[in-house]
Amino acid sequence: MSIPNVAFLHCHFRRGGVTQVVENQVAALVRHGTANICLLSGGRNEGLSASTETHADVRRIEGLDYDSVMQTQAGGTLESDLLSRGLELAKLIHASLSGIGWVPDRSVLHWHNHSLGKNVAIPIAIGVLANRFGYRQVLQIHDFAEDFRPENYGRLIQAAMDAGYANPAGKTNEHELPGPASVNRFLFPVAASIRYATLTSGDATLLSQIGVEANSIDVLPNGVALDIHSMMGREEARKKLLSAAALPSEATWCVYPVRGIRRKNVGEFLLLSRLMPEGLYSGLTLPPTTPIELASYERWKAVADRFAPRAVFDAGIIPGVSFVDNLAACSFVLSTSAAEGFGMAFLEPWLARRGVVARRLSHVTDDFQRAGVDLDRLYDAVEIPGSAAWVTECLQESGEAYRNAWKPIRDRFGDQFVGASTSESDRAIATHHIDFARLIPKRQIEVLRRMDADKGFEDEIRAANPVLGRSISTPFADQQLERNHDQIGHAYSIEATAQRLVRVYQRFGDSSGSESFLHASHSDQSLATLINRSRPFFPCRVESEIA
């Protein structure tokens, strides 16, 4: 099926991961020769490049921004009820596209993060666009609200109730709470005119487990590109960076190229900086921007000043030193991240022929390894020794952090939406070791303080993590660097992205977009339950009171 018109929809196109993905998809379709491309958002589009704006018609749609932004603009309230807002949003999208001559049966609407809970009218609009106007739609998911975003998730559960979605027993009572199946049906509708795209096969499995047919889901990994045409040699870049950062001239460098938000597990970055070979400094590139994240970041900076002197913060904003300079100067790239939607940091450095040492996130990294990327320096834990009593106490604190994170959902909607987290209690207590990332941040600081005061304790940690120690001290082989450079450049190129996108659109075939939603049997398990069961819980992600 030939699709000459593709519209990408997101609440905004500010700088960030989703905007970059959309820009890569636009570039991919331009290379493929797609005739017409449109970008629809609530109007905050300052993250778009001149190239994207040249090749796409960028349009503002009233009602498509974040609910919080629109509430502020409206003086604190959104006037219309949810169903009216969704209907009006769909009408405005259709009117905007009709105004430039697009017709539904020759167009695809490609949504990004429709179910994140930033705008709870979007699922209603998607239904109207399918049933009333006949559009084919791709719903691409980058992040789940059910993955430790309780505020967003609560809004979505409430929205399903406001939208009148029936409970599993078929009752419709405004005073009754919707069950997980109702919320799943609200957020993830099933119809011949709707397909889903996920960044990883792990996320695709989650969707299939809640009732979306597997043959309606495509895995659509991000394209990876890195502009290194001006990248200098390692030695030249190293000298430049060390001089600009006022570090010893004989030092070596590794870099963690992220914003230091909570889920990046910054405490573990500090611990690894202590375990690095003598003279190797570790840089974290960027500070966060939101108040809670910045408070966490500034706390870790203060901790580093006392207990991790070879950890360098704000390495990405050193005057005169670019991101590419940081990458060129480093011996390898480090990642201690506790959660990723796609995991660009596992792939991008290899394009600059820099190896990666990182915490394994199986739902992300398994796909890369199946695609032929040699990630032989992933670690599963940083083992911290301790008495059985200490380990037990730490596990209890982690369990309390988990329960507190989901308390707003449980208090409003009961236990049905949140399951128990995975636990390593038996193993940890039996071995007298606990993974550092399983500790609450207060305990992580306690470990760093003790390492600084007790050389014997630090040596115990080194002895408990011999493979990790070799990973951060042994140079990567040139053969591996070249092999991964070539494999990633092929498997995740813009050209490969274009081919995947076109295949997704072609899979609609000749199906009509105007038929009603199918009566799928959505699971009565919430996505939060499935995620919590299949992925480990790391308390740093949900810290709300900064220790």
- Unreliable spans are 168-173
The residue fraction in helices comes out at 40-55%
* Strand arrangement in the largest pleated sheet: 3-2-1-4-5-6-7
Question: Would you report the number of β strands?
Answer: 15
Shape: globular
SS field, number of helical segments: 22
CATH C-level of the domain at 234-380 and 477-490: Alpha Beta
The major beta sheet can be summarized as: 7 strands, parallel
Q: Please name the CATH architecture of the domain at 234-380 and 477-490.
A: 3-Layer(aba) Sandwich
Instruction: State the secondary-structure class.
Output: alpha/beta
Q: What is the CATH homology-level superfamily of the domain at 234-380 and 477-490? A: Glycogen Phosphorylase B
**Overall pLDDT score:** 91
Report the radius of gyration as a whole number of Å: 24 Å
Q: The CATH topology of the domain at 234-380 and 477-490 is what?
A: Rossmann fold
The end-to-end distance, rounded to whole angstroms, is 56 Å
**Which oligomerization state do the chains in this entry correspond to?**
single chain
Percentage of β-strand residues = 5-15%
Structure description:
The chain is an alpha/beta fold and 547 residues long. Among the domains are: 13-81 and 94-142; 234-380 and 477-490, Rossmann fold (3-Layer(aba) Sandwich), CATH 3.40.50.2000. It is built from 22 helices and 15 strands. The chain has helices at 17-32, 50-55, 67-73, 82-98, 122-131, 150-162, 180-187, 201-209, 234-244, 266-275, 291-307, 323-329, 348-351, 362-370, 388-413, 425-431, 441-453, 455-464, 466-471, 478-491, 494-506, 527-534, and strands at residues 5-9, 36-41, 57-60, 107-112, 136-141, 194-198, 217-219, 252-259, 280-286, 311-312, 332-335, 356-359, 378-379, 383-385, 433-435. Strand 12, helix 14 and strand 13 form a beta-alpha-beta unit. It is globular and about 70 Å long. The model is unreliable at 168-173 (pLDDT under 50).
